Amino acid sequence: MWMIFRKEWKELLRDRKTLFFMIALPMLLFPLIFGAIIFFTANAVKDAESKVLNYAIVGAEYSTQISQALADAPDKFKRIEIDANADYAVLIKDKTVDFILVIPAEFGTNVLDNGPQKIALYLNDAGLNMVYRRVNEIVSDLSDQVQQDSFARLGLSETQQQGLLEPVSLERKNVADERENWGEKIGGMLPYMIFILCLQGAMAPAADLGAGEKERGTLETLLISPMERYKLVMGKFLTIGFAGVTSALITVASLALWGLVLSQGLAIAKVAAFMAMIGWIDFVLIFLMLIPVVAIFAAVLLSLSIYARSFKEAQSYMGSLIIFVLLPVIIALTPGVKLEGHWVWVPLTNVALAMKELVKGTMDYFALIGIFTSTAVIAVALIAFCIHWFNKEKVLFR
């Protein structure tokens, strides 16, 4: 078994394509993808904030403050004259204007006597345009001014003003520590990333060790060797599992390294402080829980590779597995699903929930019994099926 493992691992290390998927892809491509997403998102937000918005205003004579505030910012807003009876929706969809303000005739009256006043803002809010936020900044300034004028007319002190604005407030007293707060935000995404990386890293060697051997004609040489079939399977299985774990660890380490290099000093301090809160035992447990998970992936992938007639057919089978891997993680992210009751015994979902709890520091360590038991049972059953599959000549030589 170990002889097969060493042999397969040496062949993988000689294969440039496999090394690319296991090392180069995690170290370069995934950080590049995340960096590109952050870069383009930041640029899109910046462009939306700096874009000069074309606008039209109907009833400008009823509020000189708003019309003047818009006119005083030519680097942000450009006024377009329109017919007051035009179809506003058509003008906005045709991109003649980005938004239209409609000020009613009763605007500017005494709010103490007539109550609050409303201005209609017509816009297309389906995309990232920040029209509402940018216009609301101007309207909010006017609203604050009207509010202060009204308080002055009533002769209210600052304390009385605050009492009227917020007569009863609910003060938040969060008993969760910083680690739990951060863990709740990012802990759920950790298994999402690691599961996909383990599967992705194991796919390339799995397709090669089964279907690839069929195409090269080397499978027959292995089968006529005096070694028992189960040892052949276990050697290939260990190779695939080791490749999956290696790929996941390289990717996570690469993301952490790139994050430290590209982040600002404040961000590094926050990341370092958060990582320091997580004990080494929790890191070890996260890694140990990956072992039966990778065993499940490796057994399924090897079974599919043995069944497939060609390398291409094996890849098509394996690509559909991503859906089945994502489903347990999505369930773990669902509100109300916690690591308790029957969820402790649901394979993959329980591991995703446990990783989140370990990052948060709220792990019930007794739940590890159910997690390791259920996941290990599934893994052993799949390995047994893989050995059974490998012993069938009609499967090997389809």
Automatic annotation (TrEMBL):
Taxonomy, superkingdom: Bacteria
Coiled-coil annotated residue ranges, if any: none
Domain ABC-2 type transporter transmembrane: 17-384
Keywords: Membrane, Transmembrane, Transmembrane helix
Topology relative to the membrane: Multi-pass membrane protein
InterPro entries linked to this entry: ABC2_TM
Transmembrane regions: 20-42, 237-261, 273-304, 316-337, 365-390
Pfam families the record matches: ABC2_membrane_3
Location(s) in or outside the cell: Membrane
Chief localization: membrane
Protein name from the UniProt record: ABC transporter permease
Native source species: Pseudobowmanella zhangzhouensis
